[in-house]
Amino acid sequence: MSRTHFESHIGAGSRLNWLRASVLGAQDGVVSVSSIIVGVAGASDSRAFILTAGAAGLIAGALSMAAGEYVSVSTQRDTEKALLEKEREELATQPEEELEELTKIYESKGLSRETAHKVAEELTAHDAFAAHVEAELKIDQHELANPLHAAFASAGAFFVGAIIPLIVVIFAPSDYRISSMLVAVFFVLIITGFLSAYAGGANKLKAILRVLAGGAVAMAVTFIAGKFLGGLGI
């Protein structure tokens, strides 16, 4: 495989991972906010209450996604930096042991001892640190995870999904706002289910049905809870 083809393959994989994360974020947004809206609608017919709850769910959900992703990716980045620093130190203090370690890595991939040692020597002579980082740690030292990018992307994907049920509730006629929202939500879930299956190479019909079932259960449970709590006058 040529280097250009290899980099293209890696780039495609990265784009698919980004697509999968974005689709899941949007999916989470549309299910979370539509469930809140349906739950409140089960307890009250007030458009103001429904919109207030939906908007609060959108804002809280997006901020929660951003904060959670920021913390998670920051931890990942700190771990990656620590591993890189440890590898740099080991190469400076234990070069022979590190060469043997690299040799064994390539032996485990199917190369003969002689060939693996030759490859390890040549890679070490060219750039020992890069060779170990790639083969041993599987980390791209030039593209470490970015917490801010991840936080904004996660919040943005959630927002895109969450805003859809709110828009429908705002503009749909009062008698049809929930039914219109349900149609819009299920349509969005079909699209996100298809895209998530496409990104993961999974069966598209199964993915769509799974997403639709999950969304339906979430909204049904919150609607029942809303009806129950509304009946109690809480």
TrEMBL record:
Subcellular location: Endomembrane system
Gene Ontology biological-process annotations: intracellular manganese ion homeostasis
CDD domains cross-referenced by the UniProt entry: Nodulin-21_like_1
Membrane topology: Multi-pass membrane protein
Annotated GO MF terms: manganese ion transmembrane transporter activity
UniProt cross-references to Pfam families, sorted A to Z: VIT1
Domain of life the protein comes from: Bacteria
InterPro entries membership: Ccc1_fam
Matching PANTHER family: FE(2+)/MN(2+) TRANSPORTER PCL1 (PTHR31851)
Protein name: VIT family protein
Organism: Candidatus Adlerbacteria bacterium RIFOXYC1_FULL_48_26
